[in-house]
Amino acid sequence: MTPTLVRQHRTHAGAKPRVDRCARARDWSEIQERMLVPLYEAVYERLEVGTGTRLLALGCGSGLSLLMAASRGAAVTGVEHSSPERLALARERLLPDAWGPRARADIRIVDGPPGDLGAAGGAETPAYTLVTAFEPIGWAGDSEEFGGLLRAAIPLAERGAPVVLAGWGPPERCATASVLRVAGKLADPLRGAGSRRPTLRDGLEEVAQRSGLRLDGSGRVACPFGYADTDSALKGLLSTGLFDAAITATDRTQVNKELTEALHPYVRGDGTVWMPNVFRYLIARVP
Question: Which UniProt keywords apply (predicted)?
Fold first, then answer.
């Protein structure tokens, strides 16, 4: 696949840096995405995901959550409209060419919003029994943008199906919160130009209720962010997209410098980086 190069604006003269979005998607897949595995496992265990589950994943990214559900026997469909580079990695992981003789017909990866599922499908797909949005609100986009995707997905699920939304836990229990403040501080001159903020305490409930869902429980999961070294931590954190506005407002060198300083308290004696975090998930039901 030919890398997509995007020029980013800088506030001072000089050559404009280029972001290799394919490399960043690979960093997400190889470094950052696995940090959410405890969240995936907790939800799948609680909802008894397995044979008979028809899962629709919103913002499926590079497909690790789908792979885990498929390994439990679930039929899975992933949609991703914001990162074609991550989607390409999901296809490598999940579609028939990757599985060879073990290829499964009940795995679908769709480039676009939920409304595109019908056009991509062929035969009519049975209603989904579970909808997930694991990438925390505030990573993939703001709550209004995500609410539109969620409302488009709800008619595709059967009545009473659980819908799972994810978000950050309390800031005092998320070591990464102090690191993410670097993004807000550096992006402040471009406030509103794309910087992401963690969801508020009741943010998940508000999104669910505005979408017409019925609340049905929640949970918290420890999701520590652990990295082999500071360089790996920088690649992983930058792959989330949370620092894009900061890079635009300053430059990659400045963001790397301040991120490295913010990470210093979490660097252990052996050079690894360890940041304890708690994530929260909400279970709502399709009425």
Answer: Methyltransferase, Transferase
